[in-house]
Write a structure and sequence with these properties.
mainly alpha; 20 helices; 3-stranded mixed beta sheet; single chain; two-stranded antiparallel sheet
């Protein structure tokens, strides 16, 4: 699938002695504190997000369309804002203080949300608290990169670091499971005041748990200044020297002196030169005019490491683009899968199972696949491939793409079977007055389980890949690309539905996705998604072969 990986040795600047002493000081409590605080940080978020549309309708008296739009806008904002936290962490505050600050913002947000249930200006206060939560909740890329920083450079610790990414996602799933079930039940059964009050208390516990681990953290990755400025400097310098010939010998390019492997960027190791995007090398060519000025302006002369930072980011973008299509298909769990499930028999004995509740099988699948992958698949793959992590991150991401394609095929096959049952037996009217096809909703479980497997391979693989291949001083920002891909994937999914509806609902035809899906062809839409997923997988295989892994100079 890909070229041989050149592993990065960690995320730290400094010499070998300093890195060794850090490894000696690492305490297991540091990672434990991070993982447990992640659960308590995730529970209130999912408890709020899962039932938010009902609060808009019941308490703020919004219509269904308006409520759905408000929730979509909020979740889109919450998916983009992680880049703001990541930028602050990498540039100015460092990861520890960024996490502490944004957790505090989250506490304030949940406090305002809970208080708004009593306030006279309920709507204004609620929106203020809601968007404070969106700002404060955007911590996943910072927390995961901070957690990965706790591991050192040797082979055993790199293997433990890979395992950390798995368990980080596992603990997020615990927060999702508890928040989306138990906390939603409290809100429904005991009211919004108690329900939202509990959210605020849980966030306070998240802060307390994170701060409690302070003494065990290895806060050794200092902020390196604005990466946007460094990128702009490379582009400006390369354009200024567009007529300069870059030497074939990379040793002639400008780099800071020293044998300790540390670059001029604070807390960042020097990066080795690569042959891709050679035009950018012009920014590191030292001309006669540069030699006469000391220190040289970074807008005219950049180091090889600074140039390679930009190359690293550019190499990540094709992988990022493939992640957008993955996210567009993955989000069908909360859209078209639900539309399909709404028509199926929801009864389990005397209990009625809402179609949206089947997303719990995705979460349970993740919670099964993570230990299975970490404890069984990785050791087996390690023996077969000789790779310390079992699979390279790019290979792992590709396996997830295969699983998601299979999930779309399963959804399409179920829709064909559902339509066949509909043709033979029609529908029956349930006690709630809705019409159901006499086919159990639990036939959807396999497609949810396979989506869960896809997430364990691809989403966790993306976190590990972005962290490992990002420049040392840009790890939080680059790890945040996964969240941005999912935000854009939601928009792509919405746009795809609009295009399909307009293209197929013509000449009196109800189209593929009408209001009553029994009159449409949802199976065609799933086949389309399967083809897009397969096409995305094919493009990804090309990208994986083209990708050139980051190399450090030490």
């Amino acid at each position: 699938m890909e070229a041989v990986e050149v592993e990065s040795k960690g995320s730290h600047g400094g010499d070998v002695d300093r890195r060794t002493s850090r490894n000696d000081r690492r305490s297991p409590w540091g990672c434990t504190s991070i993982l447990v605080s992640t659960v308590f940080h995730g529970m209130p978020y999912f408890g709020l997000a899962t039932n938010l549309v009902n609060y808009f309708k019941d308490e703020l008296h919004a219509g269904s369309k308006s409520a759905a739009t408000s929730v979509t806008n909020w979740m889109g904002t919450a998916s983009i804002l992680p880049l703001a936290a990541a930028f602050l962490a990498d540039s100015f505050l460092g990861k520890y203080w960024t996490i502490t600050l944004f957790l505090g913002i989250c506490v304030a947000g949940y406090g305002v949300v809970a208080t708004s249930t009593l306030a006279a200006l309920q709507s204004a206060a609620f929106y203020a608290g809601l968007y404070l939560v969106a700002l404060g909740a955007g911590l996943q890329p910072v927390i995961v990169s901070f957690g990965a920083d706790q591991f050192g450079d040797d082979e055993s610790e790199r293997a433990q670091q890979s395992s950390f990414f798995n368990w980080f996602y596992f603990f997020i799933s615990i927060g999702s499971l508890v928040g989306g079930t138990l906390l939603v039940w409290v809100q429904t059964a005991h009211g919004w005041r108690l329900g939202y009050g509990i959210l605020a208390l849980l966030e306070v516990l998240a802060v307390a748990l994170f701060v409690a681990g302070t003494g065990a953290y290895r806060r050794h990755q200092p902020p390196g200044g604005s990466p946007l400025t460094r990128i702009a400097q490379v582009l400006v310098a390369a354009v200024r020297k567009r007529n300069v010939e870059a030497p074939d010998d990379a040793a002639l390019l400008h780099e800071c002196e020293g044998d300790d492997g540390v670059s001029a960027i604070q807390g960042s190791r020097r990066l080795a030169h690569t042959d891709q995007f050679r035009f950018l090398d012009k920014a590191a060519v030292e001309t006669a005019g540069d030699k006469g000025v000391w220190p040289a302006s970074q807008w005219r002369l950049c180091t090889v490491t600074q140039v390679e930072e930009l190359k690293c980011v550019l190499r990540l973008l094709p992988v990022f683009a493939c992640g957008i299509i993955f996210a567009a298909a993955d989000t069908q769990m909360t859209t078209t899968f639900i539309l399909q499930g709404d028509t199926l028999d929801p009864h389990l004995g005397s209990f009625r199972v809402p179609a949206a509740m089947l997303t719990i099988f995705d979460t349970l699948s993740v919670m099964i696949w993570v230990p299975l992958y970490d404890r069984a698949i990785v050791p087996l793959a390690r023996r077969l491939t000789g790779h310390s992590r079992g699979f390279t991150p790019l290979a792992r991401i590709g396996v997830g793409f295969v699983f998601l394609t299979i999930a779309m095929l399963l959804a399409g096959a179920l829709e064909v079977a559902r339509r066949h049952v509909l043709t033979l037996h029609g529908t029956y009217v349930g006690t709630d007055g809705a019409k159901y096809v006499p086919m159990s909703i639990f036939w959807q479980v396999p497609q949810f389980v396979v989506v869960g497997a896809a997430e364990v391979f691809t989403i966790v693989g993306q976190m590990e890949f972005y962290y490992g291949q990002a420049p040392d001083a840009m790890r939080s920002v680059c790890t945040g690309l996964s969240s941005v891909a999912f935000a854009l994937g939601n928009y792509v999914s919405s746009a795809l539905v609009v295009v399909v509806v307009r293209a197929t609902a013509r000449g009196g035809s109800p189209g593929w996705i009408p209001d009553d899906v029994n009159d449409g062809h949802l199976d065609y839409f799933f086949w389309l998604l399967a083809m897009l997923s397969f096409g995305n997988l094919s493009a990804y295989l090309f990208v994986a072969r083209w990708y050139n892994y980051k190399k450090t100079a030490d």
